[in-house]
Design goal:
single chain; alpha/beta; seven-stranded parallel sheet; five-stranded parallel sheet
């Protein structure tokens, strides 16, 4: 399902409501929103908790997703035709529940991959050069102390990065690491999709981990990857390795990660995602100066927001015209989706 499909039913109404309701769980690019407002009734959710989303989506034809949807939403939204993820990962969407109710699920894959890859590189550089500690010391007025951190700084050149997940993000990161920094790249992937094997080795996880100076997690969250990195896997890393997580928090056993950091086996970590989000106030991770924290924003830049919003807008227009979305995530529910769409007098 790589392209748009014309599935217009012979009985599809030609005179459709000009402004079907679209609930945005969070803001999208301003210019794209303004353009969509000509054809859609766009409403921004007042809050992103489950009860608010269930209540405010009741009359929606489409939901644009940047926050987790409760499974109950699909039984309470009789006009809902589709939910579109403003991004690639669909773990925020209960896909099975959507499919049971004949609701299409779409996403916008790959467009934020360069942004996530650049984030990972930036955090690797910050960890290698100890930039947060240097910045804090200099802000505190201690020039000599700040310079002292450089004695323990390291280069990225010549180091090995193990990337778990060789999709769009993993491949973008691998290209930067090889071409930009002269690093060795070892990829860990579950499929045999094409990759640049001339510069990237692919190994099973447990063979790859002992090679890593940097372990970057860039895989989707599935039942297979949930808890993928636990105490046993962390123990396989060489002492002084660093971990960067741009995947999803539950890919890592957080308790084991904290223990590895506290023991000094891991030199540092950069975490953009967590087992519980927002990160709890009492999390031990907040107290560790060797841990760089960010609130799930690796894929968010001005440019990536525009690209993701453009991908969402294009698929909303496809569906309003009676076509399945270009990036349909639940094709197994195609018959149920078409039956639901046909049962609606208008798309709004």
């Amino acid at each position: 399902l790589d392209g748009a499909f014309d599935i217009r039913d012979p009985g599809w109404p030609e005179a459709v409501n000009a402004r079907p309701m679209v609930l945005l769980t969070n803001p999208i690019d301003d210019a794209i929103r303004a353009d969509l407002a000509d054809d859609f009734d766009l409403r921004l959710a007042s809050a992103t908790d489950g009860m608010s989303l269930r209540r405010e989506a009741r009359e929606a034809s489409f939901v644009v997703v940047r926050a987790p949807l409760p499974p109950e939403l699909f039984a309470e939204t009789p006009r809902l035709r589709a939910v579109v993820r403003h991004g690639a990962g669909v773990d925020m969407i209960p896909v099975d529940a959507a499919s049971r109710h004949g609701v299409a699920v779409a996403n916008v894959p790959a467009v934020n991959a360069p942004s996530v890859a650049e984030y990972a590189i930036g955090q690797m550089l910050a960890l290698a050069r100890r930039l947060p500690q240097i910045n804090a010391a200099l802000h505190a007025g201690n020039w000599s102390h700040a310079r002292g951190y450089a004695d323990d700084a390291t280069d990225l050149s010549g180091k090995t990065v193990v990337i778990v997940g060789m999709g769009a993000v993993g491949q973008a990161l691998a290209r930067i690491c090889v071409a930009g920094f002269g690093m060795s790249v070892v990829g860990v992937r579950r499929t045999t999709t094409p990759a640049d094997d001339a510069v990237i080795r692919h190994l099973p996880l447990e063979h790859a981990l002992p090679l890593a100076d940097y372990l970057v997690l860039a895989c989707p969250l599935t039942e297979t990857t949930r808890g993928l990195i636990g105490a046993r896997q962390l123990a396989l890393l060489k002492p002084g390795a660093c971990l960067i997580n741009v995947a999803r928090g539950p890919v890592v056993c957080e308790t084991a990660l904290v223990a590895a950091l506290q023991s000094g086996r891991l030199a540092g970590a950069a975490l953009d995602v967590f087992a519980v989000q927002p990160l709890p106030e009492d999390s031990a991770l907040r107290l560790m100066p060797q841990v760089l924290l960010s609130p799930h924003l690796a894929g968010i830049t001005r440019e990536s927001m525009k690209r993701m919003s453009q991908g969402v807008a294009a698929q909303l227009r496809q569906m309003q015209a009676g076509h399945l979305p270009q990036h349909l995530v639940n094709p197994q529910a195609r018959a149920a989706i078409l039956a639901r769409w046909a049962s609606l007098e208008t798309p709004s």
